[in-house]
């Protein structure tokens, strides 16, 4: 089956010019997403997850730019699309749920006005039909009294409710691909579970593909089919979510899993990965994780290639095994 989305050797840079070097925030990233499947893109803050999503959507603010690679969506290289072609694609066939809902919502327009405009921007339907669709979307994400809420302004919603509105807007056109950037961070556990269930229905019944950007491995284990672990702008491990989470090969992946509180015994200190993610202008030589890794040797002074192993891959010359873990 041909994947719906195929990202190949994606490079995203910021800055440069006037003799200054550009900074690489996404470095040679490749992955695929099939229809009806969920890819969990995980890693610490600053690893390049959100920039990858913005690169696919062509929503990078200058001086950010896609400097290399291909983004094939449903057979077409959308990296070569004009701005107008991308506008027609966004919202209709590819939607994004932003981490901050205020990036989605206009503070001076009612929620109903914004949702109706979003529907009519892509579909020739009456205002009443668009309003009904907006009402249904709000009800779908658990917003009570959706008819009344359509007349409210964003500032009249709590942070969690605004996030639900943002998710509802993304669902309006039942897009082929949804890029969800930490979409449930501001939600309580009950609503979070409801939203995850709705995304599961979308993938199963609507054949929608999802890229779920998060640092929450518990959500990924429940929702995703495949997982891609990012660190300092590079993919360090990919594969089926069950295999990667039960048998991680990259030390960084193993460290993330060990840091989950449920992995520790009562009364023992929580495990942590020492140090912090390096800034993109101060990456160490060779493997970016080398300075935080207990398994590093002189061989790690060279950037390791992504090594395939069956249906998974990892970027490490000293992979973790089950015996070591």
UniProtKB/TrEMBL annotation:
Record's bilayer topology term: Peripheral membrane protein
GO cellular component, one term: plasma membrane
Signal sequence interval, chain numbering: none
Domain of life of the source: Bacteria
Residue span, ABC transporter domain: 5-257
GO biological process terms, semicolon-separated: peptide transport; transmembrane transport
UniProt keyword annotation of Transport present: yes
Locations listed in the record: Cell inner membrane
Keywords carried by this UniProt record: ATP-binding, Cell membrane, Membrane, Nucleotide-binding, Transport
Molecular function in Gene Ontology: ATP binding; ATP hydrolysis activity
CDD domains in alphabetical order: ABC_NikE_OppD_transporters
Classification via Pfam families: ABC_tran, oligo_HPY
Cell membrane is among the record's keywords: yes
Primary subcellular site in the record, as a coarse category: membrane
NCBIfam families the UniProt entry points to: oligo_HPY (TIGR01727)
Family: Belongs to the ABC transporter superfamily.
Name of the protein in its database record: ABC transporter ATP-binding protein
Organism, as annotated: Rhizobium leguminosarum bv. viciae
